[in-house]
Write a structure and sequence with these properties.
The complex is a heterodimer. By secondary structure, chain A is of the alpha+beta class. In chain A, about 40% of the residues lie in helices and about 20% in strands. In chain A, a hairpin with a 2-residue loop joins strand 6 and strand 7. The termini of chain A are far apart.
Chain lengths: ~800, ~150
């Protein structure tokens, strides 16, 4: 144990000092009269004691910090891992993109971790090892073949592979108070070339000196004098570490003295390799906004998008060249200067014999190879990260999030996120131009969720989604308008003996008197009244007056109670205007509410986190799938049918035909007074997506739900892999043909018959005027069979 | 405490399901149609198999992981939700078991699966100490004729 040995050495030194002091005391006591010499010696002793005390203080300081947790490590946040299996819808191109985003290098033959090779019809990959929640996966060679936009074959060394996970990608961190970010590396993970390069340019006698290096200092002094400016620093790596780790940046003599003392003390206590490892993790390598990139581990990810151990010589030389001044040699802003410095590092490595001339020359030809800034910012998802942080705060202390190095595995799907970002960006710009709105005023938010698990796949909080700022998805509270209506209809349909989809509602002038407020007289958007309308039509056409009337009959309190069931926890005032959406919710809240519809009546908490591991990869917490049935299958089926009608014939009928027949689309438009907010919430094929458009200053944008948000919604949904499986009609729901004019039973004599689902026992019993009188109230068997076939398709 | 009779019914269902390769629950009394596989995707069937094996070895969290992974591939597969409910009941997480079985029911018109879900719900209620709800669930199962 090197540390223990050194401690013994220092205690020996202490006992010698004590002996010396005792000796002096004895000789002093023999003198009778204290002379000047005596005083001086006493002063000297006092001074020595003070120096000693100071050194002891410094010693304690360095040991405390060095032996505890050295750095606060922010929680690091990862995307979902790509799970590959035979039959997965994934194009070859998309797969290659995923590999490139993970920093995989294209090579001739994929022998090394983090590389891939392309054959005729096959991609060969050497996946990096990774520690997942359920254990470590070692590095893994495999081959994928694609056919028809799907994974066709997946094989490893031992034959076909059922399912394999690529590693997830780090995309953000919950930054610490001083915004220092780093990922720790151990010395054995660091390529030897990096150590060579670092020692070459920063401290070539590192393994020989005692923390300070007089020879190095003299060499630097000479070099600086002959150059007439500072070209070399004389500090050892140990001194640099001490300076950054313990001291402030001020340039005073005292600080320099402290630095040298502490460097020596550090060297007395710790092994060279321990000091070197600390240096590798401490060093400052760049800045993004308020986030300071520290250590070669994060530096490598930041500049090259791949782990340190995979870096090649030119990349290593570039990273090392940054030590001298990350902003001075910034490869993005000063590529020429950066290249010069990199090449200098390579030349010096050659001079000292770490690499031969040919290798140095070859490395100097290589491009800088940094991942583009555009790529970097595109891979940051500030809105999603904001949501993750909000969820984390429910279970973790802020302090722990910023210091404990937690590894957070999220449900973010980069593919869905990219589709969402691009749909928002393009469509919002197009709408703005088409509508001649002032440039850059129309803002947007979008949330995409997997309907059955509640996993948030993507989130966009601004049309310029890459820039952190106001997260509208999470924080913009806006009136929801007609998005609220399904809740009113649900409250009604929960009473099958009173309301069915075929119930006739009155769409005629309505005046609601309420104590203390002006009389409420809701109007329709088309400023007309539609007389008697079927409940399903009122929902599909989003009629205000008939909905308000229905809501008043059901009761505002019942509607609020329903909203609670659907997962809205905010306090709501029971004003009648709530029935038409005069309440403000965020897009995420709307998503939570509609998720219950999309998942067949099961309230499922929105989840952005699957699991959390500790810094040393130990499992800490998992967020399992959990559901809660809050709407019975019967009423849920009726409401879903109504929301499909919105797309078949209602306010969202433009969507009809934009999706394959087999994919059932349900949705609802939302428009607010003076066209200030444009909403669309809709679900199909296993995804629920909510989109909001509007202005931050709440000025009108002239867009209805259908002419704004719905277009963005369709663009997003088009790019997702939509499933075809749907909720079947529950066993207690039957299909019955009705006459749309009267809502009564129809038969083959009637025209324009519509088939509607009814909870068994609630179908109309009265026959429509067009139908032949019949004793049995039900529709004839043949017609019913035909309708059922049609409905199930 | 769980009612012994319910446990035995649950166990027998488990055994039947296992015999049928976790694909379908059949009873000797019903004219057994060709049991359809629980999924057309081999990866899903394998995950179901893994989950059954993990459950049998008492490694319930592994079983849950396998089923959640399968559900990411086929979120609307009623059999997977049923299997997940089965694991939850073994973990004595009765409330979630009931909910998951209900979700399975919402996704299926297969009367046998529905009956199996109602038996499972009955068992969960019994386990949670609610014999009234357990009886009602058993009646639902019986009405489905399986």
């Amino acid at each position: 144990m090197p540390i223990a040995k050194k401690r013994t050495a220092s205690s020996k030194r202490t006992s010698k000092t004590t002996k010396r002091r005792r000796g002096r005391r004895k000789s002093a006591s023999r003198r009778r009269r204290p002379g000047a010499g005596y005083v001086i010696s006493r002063l000297g002793i006092a001074l020595a004691v003070m120096c000693l005390a100071y050194i002891v203080y410094l010693d304690i300081t360095i040991r405390n910090r060095f032996e505890g947790q050295r750095w606060p490590i922010p929680a690091h946040v990862y995307t979902r891992p790509l799970e590959l299996y035979q039959g997965l819808r994934l194009s070859r191109e998309r797969f290659i993109e995923e590999l490139q985003e993970l920093g995989y290098r294209r090579v001739e033959n994929a022998q090394q971790q983090g590389s891939y090779a392309m054959g005729n019809n096959v991609i060969q990959v050497m996946a990096r090892p990774f520690v997942f929640w359920d254990g470590a996966r070692p590095e893994l060679p495999f081959e994928v073949q694609f056919r028809g936009g799907r994974v066709d074959r997946l094989t490893g060394d031992g034959g076909p592979i059922d399912l394999l996970r690529l590693e997830p990608r780090l995309f953000g961190s919950v930054s610490s108070l001083d915004h220092e970010d780093r990922t720790l590396v151990q010395l054995d993970q660091v390529p030897p070339e990096l150590i060579h390069a670092l020692l070459t340019v920063e401290d070539r006698d590192f393994y020989r000196h005692i923390g300070i290096d007089p020879r190095g200092l003299a060499r630097a002094l000479w070099a600086n004098l002959s150059a007439g400016r500072v070209v070399q620093g004389g500090s050892t790596l140990t001194q640099q570490l001490v300076k950054n780790f313990y001291l402030t940046a001020e340039r005073t003599f005292t600080r320099k003295l402290n630095e040298m003392l502490m460097a020596v003390l550090l060297e007395i206590h710790y092994e060279k390799n321990e000091i070197l490892e600390a240096y590798l993790n401490e060093v400052y390598l760049g800045q993004v906004g308020s986030r300071a990139i520290h250590g070669f581990g994060l530096g490598s990810l930041f500049y090259f998008g791949r782990p340190l151990r995979e870096l090649k010589l030119p990349e290593i030389a570039l990273l090392v060249s940054l030590v001298r001044g990350p902003s001075h040699y910034n490869p993005y802003r000063r590529p020429e200067r950066s290249r010069e410095r990199r090449d200098l590092v390579l030349d010096k490595m050659n001079e000292l014999g770490f690499i031969d001339h040919k290798t140095a020359q070859r490395a100097k030809i290589a491009p800088l190879g940094v991942s583009s800034e555009g790529v970097q910012s595109a891979l940051a998802y500030p809105a999603y990260l904001g949501f993750v942080r909000q969820q984390l705060r429910q279970d973790y202390r802020e302090q722990d999030l910023r210091t404990e190095g937690l590894r957070i595995f999220t449900t973010l799907d980069p593919d869905v996120q990219r589709a969402t970002e691009s749909a928002v960006r393009r469509r919002v710009t197009a709408i703005e131009r088409a509508r001649k709105l002032p440039d850059g005023t129309l803002e947007a938010a979008a949330v995409v969720i997997r309907s059955d698990s509640g996993e948030v796949a993507a989130m966009v909080g601004a049309r310029k989604s890459r820039f952190a700022g106001f997260n509208r998805a999470l924080d913009a509270q806006r009136p929801v308008g007609s998005l609220i209506k399904p809740v009113v209809y649900l409250a009604a349909l929960q009473q099958p003996q009173r309301y069915t989809l075929a119930t006739l509602l009155e769409d005629a002038p309505l005046r609601v008197k309420q104590a203390g407020s002006p009389v409420w007289t809701p109007k329709n958007y088309d400023e007309q009244f539609h007389g008697q309308v079927l409940l399903i039509q009122s929902l599909a056409q989003s009629y205000n007056v008939s909905t308000a009337r229905l809501g008043m009959a059901v009761g505002v309190d019942a509607v609020i109670a329903e909203m609670r069931q659907l997962g809205i926890s905010r306090r709501l005032q029971p004003f009648p205007s709530l029935l038409l959406g005069a309440i403000e919710l965020t897009p995420v809240e709307v998503a939570q509410m509609y998720l219950t519809f999309a998942s067949g009546g099961f309230r499922t908490p929105l989840r952005s986190i699957r699991s959390v591991l500790s810094q040393d990869q130990q499992p800490l917490a998992r967020y399992p799938l959990s559901v809660e049935q809050v709407i019975q299958p019967g009423p849920m089926a009726l409401l879903n049918y109504g929301l499909q009608e919105v797309v078949r014939s209602g306010t969202a009928r433009v969507l009809r035909g934009r999706f394959p027949e087999a994919i059932r689309v349900s949705g609802k438009t939302g428009t607010t007074d003076d066209y200030r907010d444009s909403w669309f919430a809709g679900y199909a094929g296993g995804y629920l997506t909510v989109v909001w458009l509007g202005r931050d200053d709440n000025e009108p944008v002239g867009l209805s739900g259908a002419s704004g948000a719905m277009l963005v919604w369709a663009d997003i949904m088009h790019r997702l892999d939509l499933h075809r499986e749907e909720f079947p009609l529950p066993l207690d729901v039957e299909l019955v043909a009705v006459d749309p004019g009267t809502g009564r039973l129809a038969d083959k004599h009637c025209e324009n018959v519509i088939e509607l689902p009814f909870i068994v026992g609630s179908a109309p019993t009265e026959r429509a005027p067009c139908a032949a009188p019949q004793v049995n109230g039900k529709v004839g068997g043949k017609l019913r069979n035909w309708l059922e076939r049609l409905f199930r398709r | 405490m769980r009612h012994p009779a319910c446990i035995s019914h649950q166990v027998s269902l488990l055994i039947i399901a296992a015999l049928a390769g976790c694909v379908t629950v059949g009873t000797p009394t019903s004219p057994a149609p060709e049991p359809a596989p629980a999924s057309a995707k081999p990866v899903v069937l394998n995950l179901m198999r893994d989950s059954t094996q993990s459950s049998a070895a008492g490694q319930y969290s592994q079983a849950v992981l396998a089923l959640e992974q399968a559900l990411r591939i086929e979120p609307r597969n009623a059999w997977l939700w049923h299997e997940l409910a089965k694991v939850r009941i073994q973990q004595q997480r009765y409330h979630q078991a009931v909910q998951l079985a209900a979700k399975s029911n919402a996704l299926s018109r297969d009367r046998r699966l529905q009956a199996a879900n109602w038996w499972l719900i009955a068992d969960a209620h019994q386990g949670a100490g609610d014999p009234v709800k357990a009886r009602a669930a058993r009646e639902r199962a019986n009405r489905l004729g399986h």
